Amino acid sequence: MCLLYTLRQHIYCLSLSWLRIVQLYACAGYMAILLTLIVYYCCMALRLICSLRRIKQLTQLRWQIKQQAKLLEQQLVQLERK
Question: How many CA atoms are closer than 13 Å to the CA of 14, on its beta-carbon side?
Fold first, then answer.
């Protein structure tokens, strides 16, 4: 916060017209919005990646459980035949 205040004071001390100062603030505002959107969409992408990874892990676990169930069923059938 203190850094922004000192930057603001420095801008006002420059020999710029008010139009240039307004343009500078507008550019800073656009940059802030752009950075905010970049961070937001990065977070959303990370959330999506984590969800997809979790779904993949659950799918693999389900497949492994089905394979183990088939194996146990085959072993049970073999024991019943004996």
Answer: 13
CB proximity list for 47: less than 8 A, separation 6 or greater: none
Confidence of residue 9 (pLDDT cuts 50, 70, 90): confident
Buried/exposed code over 51-73 (b: 16+ C-beta within 10 A; e: otherwise): eeeeeeeeeeeeeeeeeeeeeee
Mean pLDDT of 13-40: 88
Number of independent structural domains in the chain: 1
Give the global pTM. Answer: 0.60
**What is the residue range of 8's domain?**
2-81
